[in-house]
Design brief:
- This protein has about 525 residues and is α+β, with helices and mostly antiparallel strands.
- About 25% of the residues lie in helices and about 15% in strands.
- β6 and β7 form a beta hairpin.
- About 0% of the residues have low confidence.
């Protein structure tokens, strides 16, 4: 967040409008739903969605597989119909086809799968009511809670626009001014930041959603995938060792396991709570930088997913697979989670840009049920969404001339009410450090040691201002946490291994070793 600005450095949009709040989208109340007239946000995020052609701006490196989801018919020990009318969950043993794409987030399409980075975990359910996309990551929380900050976050984490080299100083420059990221940083720089492979990592929807029952009653829910193969993470040194042998190891491991008939499986577990503000807690349940305590909100199993078929063509299936958080079926709904509201516009918008306006006609993205719309034409259209017997002259609704008709209502509507001002404000209960401290204290000693070592290595290239701000954040989370990072940086400085911008970091060591170890030869 910029301070002491001169007039020449004032942030504007591309229309030249000065931007006085670049931290918060406009919502009904400070935790309410966003509005479609968020001009600054929509301009910012839609431009961001179009910054790369055709590779994904984020989640560029990916692997995928087909399989099925088998429902248990219950939420824990209760009939699931009490909480949601979504058909795919109702009958024990009912199977729904799925396609899953695993990915890294920040790095490009052919980057090593050993880099420290969240991993994407996106699942497309081809249900009888159409597609449902559950789009999340391996980690259960995120760096930021307001979608307005997402393009800036990714810009800071991506390579420098001048040098094209990723910079930890740029990374932590943003993070140091975004205290809500402290919890995510605590996970990311621990061994949880480098899963050993895709088969043995967790997944999470990250955001808060809603379930709606037949009466139109809603509850808040969070989704979690638990691998039945167990969980394995890597230390930094172990990741470097693997990278020296095979930087495609995650993709290869998934493909070959399925080819051998060792089908990976995950149990889908759901946490739920009543749909209200829960002022009894010191955090907001819609805040995606927070975990819900599983002792208060148990992880209840609802079904199992098995991946049993590899793609026949990587590009046609894995690369062109298109997911969106707004792709829900009846019985599932949005919460007012600000990141979810922003992602819901961004994801489908970027697919229209990246794959094309008719991306939903591609086999990997098309629902496995009849589709009938009045949408026509567009780039690469190769069939018409027309119903049997529909008058081909009528591409509008309503009509008396044999056009499409509205579907019957599947149940009572869910109609939340609001009474608040339309504002651009952060949420009230931010509590940016408490859960980060709790997570740190729950780590085993070797995980703490790895976390501190990785943070010291990364922060050793940063300015004193950035270091001091991060140490303050870690100290507010847990005094021991901040003290160990501070002492580690002091030790590094005493050894002469760091300066403001350039030091003997792993990145610089690699650059210097390339010259030292390179073999001189004559030209030809």
């Amino acid at each position: 967040m910029a301070t002491n600005e001169t007039p020449d450095s004032t942030l504007t949009d591309r229309q030249g409008h000065p931007i006085s709040d670049n931290q918060n989208i406009r919502t009904v109340g400070n935790r309410g739903p966003s509005t479609l007239e968020n001009y600054h946000f929509i301009e910012k995020i839609s431009h961001f969605d179009r910054e790369r052609i055709p590779e994904r701006v984020v989640h560029g490196r990916g692997a995928g597989a087909h399989g099925y989801f088998e429902a248990y018919g219950k939420l824990g020990e209760e009939p699931i119909a009490k909480y949601t009318r979504a058909k795919l969950f109702q009958e024990p043993g009912k199977r729904t086809p799925v396609f899953v794409r695993f990915s890294s987030v920040i790095h490009g399409g052919h980057s090593p799968e050993t880099l420290r980075d969240p991993r994407g975990f996106a699942t497309k359910f081809y249900t009888e009511d159409g597609n449902w996309d559950l789009v999340g990551n391996n980690l259960k929380i995120f760096f930021i809670r307001d979608a307005m900050k997402f393009p800036d976050m990714v810009h800071a984490f991506k390579p420098d626009p001048v040098t094209n080299v990723q910079s930890m100083e740029r990374f932590f420059d943003f993070v140091s001014q975004s205290p809500e990221a402290t919890h995510m940083i605590t996970f990311l720089f621990s061994p949880w930041g480098i899963p050993a492979n895709y088969r043995q990592m967790q997944g999470s929807g990250v955001n808060t959603y809603k379930w709606i029952n037949a009466a139109g009653e809603g509850v808040l829910v969070k989704y979690h995938w638990e691998p039945l193969q167990g969980i394995r993470n890597l230390k930094q040194s172990e990741a470097e060792q693997i990278q020296g042998k095979n930087f495609n190891h995650g993709t290869q491991d998934l493909y070959e396991a399925i080819e051998r008939g060792e089908f990976p499986a995950w149990e889908l577990q759901v946490q739920w709570m009543s749909d209200d503000e829960h002022e009894e807690f010191d955090f907001d349940p819609l805040d995606d930088t927070k975990l819900w305590d599983p002792e208060l909100f148990p992880m209840l199993p609802v079904g199992k997913m098995v991946l049993n078929k590899n793609p026949e063509n990587y590009f046609a299936e894995v690369e062109q697979a298109a997911f969106g958080t707004g792709v829900l079926v009846d019985g599932l709904d949005f919460s007012d989670d600000k990141m979810l509201q922003g992602r819901t516009f961004s994801y489908s918008d970027t697919q229209r840009h990246r794959v094309g306006s008719n991306y939903l006609q591609l086999p990997i993205n098309a629902p496995k049920k009849r589709v009938a719309t009045n949408q026509r034409d567009g780039q690469m259209a190769f069939y018409i969404d027309i119903a049997p017997g529909q008058n081909p002259h009528v591409n509008y609704e309503p009509s008396t001339m044999g056009g499409l008709t509205e579907a019957p209502k599947p149940g009572e509507p869910h109609e939340p009410s609001y009474s608040a001002k339309l504002v651009k404000q952060p949420i009230d209960r931010q509590n940016n450090f408490k859960q980060a401290g709790e997570t740190y204290r729950k780590f085993e000693d070797w995980e703490k040691d790895e976390l501190i070592e990785n943070l010291v290595d990364a922060l050793s290239t940063c300015s004193t201002v950035i270091r001091d701000q991060m140490i303050q954040h870690f100290t507010e989370a847990d005094p021991e946490y901040g003290k160990r990072v501070k002492e580690g940086l002091q030790t590094t400085d005493k050894l002469g291994n760091s300066s403001k911008h350039v030091g003997t970091t792993p990145a610089n060591e690699g650059m210097e070793l390339s010259e030292e170890l390179g073999h001189s030869t004559d030209g030809y």
